[in-house]
Specification:
29% helix; 5-stranded antiparallel sheet; 14 strands; Rossmann fold
Length: 247
């Protein structure tokens, strides 16, 4: 999907066509386990800084030292950090996304998940950037401790996580409030999404992706080496959470 979006934007590489001639828009289909289906243009993964949201710019200003951009995708934020002269590594599980990030100029990339990387990497980092709502990669209470422990293994003393999240509970839409209620009845956090992504004839496996309140985030940090340092919710319901490693 990201390769196709890159081809449509740049003309580099084969493009999906409609009627044999016209480039098709590249649409990411997001399917939730209650049957809700949404679609969004995949081109946003390639956005340049002038197209970003305000909180994206503020997130980069919170980065310091060596940065690991987790879920870097097509390199949107990692490339900008590199332009600013920062040492940044882009990590993603998608070979196709990393291929596009490299084509766009990102020099240092890793194709793996954080657990595997923590078990083998010699590099250590001062900042873990989880942009693009990637606080969701915590998945939920079951997964969060292992994910955060892996980051602690990769961290230098005093390291921080800079993560973009979304508080899901301001909505009055019954499609979403009903889903929150359904989740809680099943012993899950209200905003613990169960999703799969679709593009053309491709479909991912079902996976958890977390949207949570700040209070829920603090609960997930209990028993880990990370503590919440600050919350920037100027663009609520979106927020930037800064978490710091404890000695």
């Amino acid at each position: 999907m990201i390769r196709d979006a890159y081809a449509v934007r740049t003309g580099i590489g084969p493009r999906p066509l409609a009627g044999g001639r016209l480039p098709r828009p590249v649409i990411e289909i997001i399917e939730r386990d209650d049957g809700l289906i949404n679609g969004a243009p995949a081109d946003h993964y390639l956005d340049e800084p002038e197209q970003w949201q305000h909180h994206d710019h503020r997130a980069l200003r919170l980065c310091r030292g060596a940065v690991l951009d987790i879920g870097c995708g097509a390199g949107r934020t990692a490339i900008e950090l590199q332009r600013r002269g920062m040492a940044v590594t882009g990590l993603d599980t998608s070979p196709g996304a990393v291929e596009v990030a490299r084509a766009r100029g990102l020099r240092d990339t890793v194709i793996t998940d954080v657990d595997t990387y923590a078990s083998r990497a010699t590099s250590r980092y001062d900042t873990f950037l989880m942009a693009g709502n990637n606080l969701g990669l915590l998945e939920g209470p079951e997964r969060a401790p292992a994910f955060l422990a892996a980051l602690a293994e990769l961290a230098r003393p005093g390291a921080r996580i800079v993560a973009h999240g979304t508080d899901p509970y301001g909505t009055k839409d019954p499609v979403h409030t009903g889903y929150h209620r359904r989740n809680r009845e099943r012993g899950r956090l209200g905003g613990q999404l169960r999703l799969r992504l679709r593009y053309r004839r491709l479909t991912t496996e079902w996976f958890d992706y977390l949207v949570c309140s700040v209070a829920e985030l603090e609960g997930l940090l209990e028993g880990t080496r990370w503590r919440l340092k600050s919350i920037d919710d100027q663009d609520r319901p979106y927020y930037l959470a800064v978490m710091e490693l404890q000695p």
